[in-house]
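Methods: example folding runs. The two proteins below were folded one after another, and each record is reproduced exactly as written to the output file, sequence line first and structure-token line second.
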Amino acid sequence: MPAWRSLSRLDGPLPALPRPLDALSERWASLRPRVRLALIALAAICAVAAVTARVRAAESRWGGAPVTALVATEHLAVGDQPKGLRATLLPPQAVPSTAVTRISGDESLALALPEGAVLTQAHLDPRGPAAGLDPSLRAVPVPVHEGWAISAGGWVDVWVLGAGEAPAALVARSRPILDIRSDAASMTALVGLHIDEVSAATAGLALGKVLLAHAPAPGGDGSVRDGLGQ
């Protein structure tokens, strides 16, 4: 079909509108230009006010205007450089009070930083994995096997195996796994033990007879010997 015939279809009167829309368009066309301009300005003001109200409601719900925090884009282990972080706007209630917004570049992580987590001062604490540890606990390295599926953030019971027919002894119950360190030859779990449990555990380690058993998180009774005591 020739192009001029296609263009000719654009000629002619406006298409018929439904009766309510047709009446509304006629009324709009009959208004004075300044009245139409005032109505358009009023509609724009109402739209801006509605958006502003929604923003304020969201800020009130989440504690205020968004703040900038450094968020990990991948999982970073203890000892890694805090690289690959993304500056992200987050609600204030989602950002810890100790969040870090700037790093010098020569720090290393004292705690693991999972993907999506916010970098805090505790992650850069020079005390290492003991940074978030209860004062009554100590980080004790215990050799483990990969097949035991021990992972950081889990909980374990610590057993010292007896010699010969001697029974095994439960040294500690529901203790936190602070970190896992491994190389090509071995794997070691850092376990948070109460200071009174360290002696028995190290005695077992000297004989190579310490076993970690998966355990539930400690109860909420606040007992240091049965949990973190926090």
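Second run, written to the same file directly after the first:
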Amino acid sequence: MKRFTFRPVKTSIIGTIAGLALFQTYPAFSGLSESARDWYVTCNDNNYCIAETSGTSADDPDMQFKLERSNKPNGKVFVTISPSLKLGLGMRVEIDVLGLDYGVFGEIKKIYKGNEMAFSGDARRELIQKLREGRKAQILIDFGGDIGTVIYKVSLSGVSTALMLMDEAQQRLDRVDAAIAWGGEPADSLSIAREPVGDEVVGEDGHEDQSEKPVQQASGNVIIDEGIDTSIGSGSRYYTAADLPDAVAMPGFKTYQCDMETPMEGFGAIGLGMGNGHALYMVPCQMGDVNIEHYIAMLGPKHGNFANTYEFETPPDFNQPNRSTIINPDYDPDTMKLFATTYHSPNYDCGIYETHQYVEEEDFFELIEFREKSSCDGKNTLPENFPLVWTIDEMGQ
């Protein structure tokens, strides 16, 4: 991957707007290099455009955060993360827009040339809109092992200007596929005085504009490259205990004696709408290397002013008591299933994967499936593909 040396090229919003008003008489672009507040935009001669800024972290000072797009009509926008620390398949990556209770996360399924991973999707999807609305973002990469989770901070000041420059360079002004300057023109239409530059291109860093989805959610088989809607209906995120409803935070302090500050700052608690005025909260309680302990709480009319907390079963022949916390949970609102993954190794190559079904009538979680890969053999296997040890169907036999 090319590392940019940032050059202070001054530009102004006024100049950009004036230029847009005259776009029909512009000559065709032959490359672009221009700053946009804290971002820097470059387009090559084929108008493959990259907007880039640097991330800051004491553990890894050389991370690059990029928006990339080819000149293809309706081309995807890749939100690309490139640290100097080596990425690996299966690592969890999270982007959170600070102050907006919005974030996306996923497991790395593909690593591109230059040690890069990418969230891909439509140019006007919610992730792009939230990056435009925010002022700062926080990026978390769980490298595992001795490194653990590294948290980067990036500036979002200039994202809209950068995308506007990309729209202009790629001749998308007034087109339906523009990221910023969208209008009613077809995606493959050109302005009057412009000619296409080069053929449809493949990104110079290997991000083909294709249907492949490089990032998947850690559990539940849900593809999340288009971003997660984080209204309370489907995934609000809280980074301090003070941000949680008091009734949800209280069990963490009084019942579970959680050390909440560190895991909440690093991973955040998640609130999910359950319907009928109820919300489920997954709250990190204790920090760990790869296993983050959570408690689960629900607020809603049937619980009054207090949050209900839950216990979790193990298979009957294990002869183990119910647990009050759960490891690395992930909830699917569509199926009302709660997944939990406990890793036996920092390499994520072995462990336990549980599926608990929420039974609404009785307000409890019932264990329905238990999987375990006991051999830590260095081969990465999706937890949902671990060998099946027990299923509730056995109870009827």
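Comment on the second run: The CA atoms of residues 25 and 193 lie 6 Å apart.
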